Amino acid sequence: MIIKERLKKIYKDRRLLYGMSLKQFKEKHAGSKLGIWWAIATPLVLALSINFVFINVFNIKFKDYTLFVLAGLIPWAFFINSLTEATYSFTACSSLLKQTSFPREFVSISSILSNLFNFMLSIIFLIPLFIISNSGVIKLLPVLVVVIIIHSIFIIGLGFIVSSLNIFSRDLNHFLPIAFMIWFWVTPVFYSLDMVAKPFQWVCIYNPMTYFIAMYQSILFKAALPTLATFSISVFLSVLSFFSGYLFFVANEADLLKRA
Questions:
Q1: Whole-model pTM?
Q2: Which pLDDT score, from 0 to 100, does residue 39 have?
Q3: pLDDT 10s digits, 88-133
Q4: pLDDT (0 to 100) of residue 6
Q5: Residue-level pLDDT at 206
Q6: By CB neighbour count within 10 A (0-12 exposed, 13-18 middle, 19+ buried), where does 157 fall?
Q7: DSSP structure string for 146-183
Q8: For residues 112 and 94, what is the distance between their CA atoms, to the nearest angstrom?
Q9: pLDDT at residue 28, rounded to an integer
Q10: Dihedral sign computed on CA atoms, order 224, 228, 229, 234
Q11: Which one of 94, 127, 169, 213 has the fewest CB atoms closer than 10 angstroms to its CB?
């Protein structure tokens, strides 16, 4: 019942949440000459670098490999940047947390939504590349919006957990970069699942980000609907992540305010 009331409060104050997210988005690009173009340049340069290594150095035969990597790398960047900023959100806004006039979970959510704005810009500017490669992508854009929403819900849930844990243990600052680096290499971003030797495929199968990346790659690279199994698992993971993370935050909110 408490969760239900809090969710109603979030919806009621949604304009405040939007304002906080937009402010963070603008501050992120303030003073930068390239500004929002960094949202496009960063994943593009990284994709081209990976393309050079795997195509020219390892001689992998993969048609439109750069587009394949981009299809997974853009959502991965959204995921990793969102969680990184969410981790420090409570410590960075400790004075704001002690105000009672707004839902405190907005601090974590707004940091993720500001990265969602970045992500949407990347998609908008880079999606013509995918359409040129396969015009069927156009028909799947509404499905892409649904996938982005499901993915965002998944990230918000994890954001509640890492932002709360960071208050209790500052060692998380040192652990997460290592964890994220390992997580990246075991996620099929720059390789497909069938390229992994069967004895090791379980690492990817038990990796929740595998299913989200697979959906983006299906829509953007293959111009095909995600499989029902992949979509269903992703929805389940999003719901599980959100409510687990939110319950964890609510259960520890009082302690968080004391320690922040």
A1: 0.89
A2: 66
A3: 888 777 667 666 667 888 889 999 999 999 899 888 888 988 998 8
A4: 82
A5: 94
A6: buried
A7: HHHHHHHHHHHHHHHHHHHHHHH-TTHHHHHHHHHHHH
A8: 17
A9: 74
A10: positive
A11: 169
Other CB atoms within a 10 A radius of the CB of residue 69 amount to 25
pLDDT for the residue 227: 95
Percent helix, percent strand, percent coil in the chain, to nearest 5: 85, 0, 15
Cα–Cα distance measured from residue 166 to residue 5, given in angstroms and rounded to the nearest whole number: 26
Tell me how far apart the alpha carbons of residues 169 and 174 are, in angstroms, rounded to a whole number: 10
Contacts of the segment 249-253: beta carbons below 8 A, 24+ positions apart: 249/105, 249/108, 249/160, 249/161, 249/163, 249/164, 250/2, 250/3, 250/6, 252/164, 252/168, 253/104
Q: What is the DSSP string of 71-126?
A: HHHHHHHHHHHHHHHHHHHHHHTHHHHT--SS-TTHHHHHHHHHHHHHHHHHHHHH
Task: Check: CB of residue 110 under 8 Å from CB of residue 21.
Answer: yes
* Other beta carbons within 10 Å of 50: 19
User: In the chain, which stretches have pLDDT less than 50?
Assistant: none
Rounded to whole angstroms, the Cα distance separating 19 from 9 reads 16
Spatial separation of the C-alpha atoms in residues 222 and 133, rounded to whole Å = 10
Q: Do residues 207 and 187 lie in contact, with contact meaning Cβ atoms separated by under 8 Å?
A: yes
Per residue in 157-167, pLDDT (tens digit) is 999 999 888 88
